[in-house]
Specification:
The structure holds 2 protein chains of 2 kinds. Chain A is mainly alpha-helical. Chain A contains 8 helices and no strands. In chain A, 68% of the residues lie in helices and 0% in strands. Chain A starts with a helix and ends in an 8-residue tail after the last helix. Chain B is an alpha+beta fold. Helix content of chain B is 31%, strand content 23%. In chain B, strands 1-2-3-7-6-5-4 form a 7-stranded antiparallel sheet, with helices on both faces. Chain B is globular and about 70 Å long. Classes of the chains: A mainly alpha, B alpha+beta.
């Protein structure tokens, strides 16, 4: 099979897909695992998928599903390490703290609500587009968004700037 | 800073991807080929079981009915054998790794390449998992998977109804080495060349070797892959 179409698509979309996956999981290594799993799925059916009208939505859905599958794996529940991780040191300008803060707040959300927030406010998708990616109704997206924002408002300091 | 800005800020300056697209595509190729061949094998076994079941049922009916025409008694059931589970996965991996040194020099086996236990296949005995290894040379990714095999599938995986990707050539050889498939796009002058050799061997072993590259595979590489797939050391027996 000529892979040029697939390579071209991955070349143009890899970066946003990795960033989306990172916002889901908060770790670049896991994000790469998620994206490679999603891309493998795309590649296996590329002949059919490449003709889809909403190819980006399908790719995002593959990433979301790979992330949800990853969350279900038993070894994610507990991880033993040989040594305790080093304590975080605050950065001088606070930029790193801000990055970690938003990830920490997102981490407090259930997986599907976190996905909805990332799709709506990072990928800038509409309610309908988000519903298509999440394979649910627009009403569900609205309710998940509302509840997720309530949780975030409760935990994030600057309420007025939230969205 | 609002939520949108914070999220965009959080993904600034991402590190380089931690996976290789060539390897991912090679894995996808292997999955396609393996799915097709294994589906053929599963289809053959399913048909065989239906035939065996049919004979068995008709034999019982005729015996019970009396005075019927002469019909065969129940055919012997298909026996799917597996290698002895006495061997541990670690021992098998070590034995297969040692066999890498016997493969053709043209494959440029990386001295650090080792076989890894890839896990059990659903519905099989504890040690019935597969083993895999891979390495890269001159832009060529080579991957070897070794599986335990019950019986060599007799259905032709290259037959029109069984072929998955028409853009790949499909060649099937039956000889003393068992049944060997070569699936490739090398002769079609395509970029991003790929060749997969699947050997279903009489020693209850299925060896799948794939080579992928963004350019052209070395001349005569297919024969070297076939020789490697037939290497005596890459066996699940022993």
């Amino acid at each position: 099979m000529d892979d040029s179409g697939f390579r071209e698509y991955v070349g143009s979309r890899l970066d946003p897909l990795r960033r989306t996956a990172y916002l889901m999981c908060g770790d670049w290594h896991t994000a790469d695992d998620i994206v490679s799993t999603a891309l493998l799925k795309l590649y296996r059916d590329w002949r059919r998928i490449s003709r889809m009208e909403h190819l980006d939505a399908y790719a995002r859905r593959a990433v979301i599903n790979a992330w949800l599958d990853e969350r279900r794996r038993p070894w994610r529940r507990e991880r033993s390490v040989e040594a305790l991780p080093p304590r975080a040191v605050p950065a001088g300008d606070g930029a790193v703290d801000d990055r970690l803060a938003v990830l920490r707040h997102l981490d407090a959300l259930p997986a599907r609500r976190r996905a909805v927030i990332v799709l709506r406010y990072y990928c800038d998708l509409s309610v309908e587009e988000t519903a298509e990616v999440m394979e649910c109704s627009p009403g569900t997206v609205k309710s998940q968004t509302t509840r997720a924002l309530e949780t975030l408002r409760a935990s994030m300091a600057d309420v007025s700037d939230l969205v | 800073m609002g939520l949108q800005e914070e999220m965009h800020s959080a993904v600034d300056n991402p590190p380089a991807p931690g996976f290789d697209l060539d390897q991912l595509i090679g894995k996808g190729h292997r999955h396609r080929v393996r799915s097709r061949v294994m589906l053929s094998a599963a289809g053959f076994l399913a048909v065989a079981m239906v035939i065996v079941g049919g004979y068995s049922l008709s034999g019982t009916t005729h015996r019970g009915g009396g005075g019927q025409a002469n019909v065969p008694a129940a055919a012997p059931p298909l026996v799917v054998t597996h290698p002895s589970p006495a061997d541990t996965t670690g021992d098998t991996a070590r034995r297969l790794t040692e066999a890498l040194s016997t493969l053709p020099a043209a494959l440029h086996v990386d001295p650090s390449a080792t076989f890894t236990y890839g896990g059990k296949q659903p519905g099989t005995a504890a040690n019935d998992g597969y083993y895999y290894t891979s390495w890269r040379f001159d832009g060529v990714n080579v991957t070897i998977d070794v599986y335990p095999l019950g019986a060599i599938p007799t259905e032709n995986g290259c037959a029109p109804g069984n072929r998955g990707d028409p853009s790949l050539s499909c060649d099937r050889t039956i000889d003393a080495h068992g049944t060997t498939y070569v699936v490739s796009n090398v002769d079609l002058g395509k970029p991003d060349q790929v060749t997969v050799v699947d050997a279903f061997r009489p020693d209850h072993t299925y060896v799948s070797i794939s080579a992928t590259t963004r350019g052209k595979l070395p001349a005569g590489f297919t024969n070297q892959l076939k020789n490697a797939a037939h290497a005596a050391g890459l066996t699940m027996e022993g």
